Amino acid sequence: MAEAIHALAIPKLGLTMKEGTVAAWHAKPGDAVTEGAPIVDIESEKTTAVHEAPASGVLRRQIAKVGDKLPVGALIGVIAPAAATDAEIDSFIAAYRPELAA
């Protein structure tokens, strides 16, 4: 596949942030998203921030639900081209390493 699959992970919003809570989704699975567009709100102990889509494509998986509290770097969604197969998405999720995203 020529186009990349992209992870949507809990961002580190501050130097001491260890985990974040999914506060709201601005897109649902199947929605086309544009790089830089608001996609999910993340709350930390100190702030709430809009997390932007890291790439354009389709929100293929929404792994975390509103209210889920997860460590920084945890996978919460997958953005991929519409042509990506479910097997490719599953493989990407299985190979995801949160320590590389953090």
What does this structure look like?
- This protein is mainly beta and 102 residues long.
- It has one domain: RNA polymerase II/Efflux pump adaptor protein, barrel-sandwich hybrid domain (OB fold (Dihydrolipoamide Acetyltransferase, E2P), Beta Barrel), CATH 2.40.50.100.
- It is 14% helix and 38% strand.
- The strands form two sheets. It has a four-stranded antiparallel sheet, with no helix packed on it. Strands 5-4-2-7 form a four-stranded antiparallel sheet, with no helix packed on it.
- The model has no long low-confidence stretch (mean pLDDT 92).
Kindly report the average pLDDT value.
92
Tell how many strands the DSSP assignment holds: 8
Named CATH architecture = Beta Barrel
* Largest beta sheet: strand ordering: 1-8-6-3
Kindly list the characteristics that best describe this protein:
OB fold (Dihydrolipoamide Acetyltransferase, E2P); mainly beta; 4-stranded antiparallel β-sheet; 102 residues; 38% strand; 8 strands; single chain; 14% helix; globular
Summarize the structure.
The protein is mainly beta and 102 residues long.
Topology, pairings included?
Blueprint: E1 6-9, E2 19-25, E3 32-33, E4 38-43, E5 48-52, E6 57-62, E7 69-71, E8 75-80, H1 86-95, H2 98-101
Antiparallel strand pairs: 1-8, 2-4, 2-7, 3-6, 4-5, 6-8
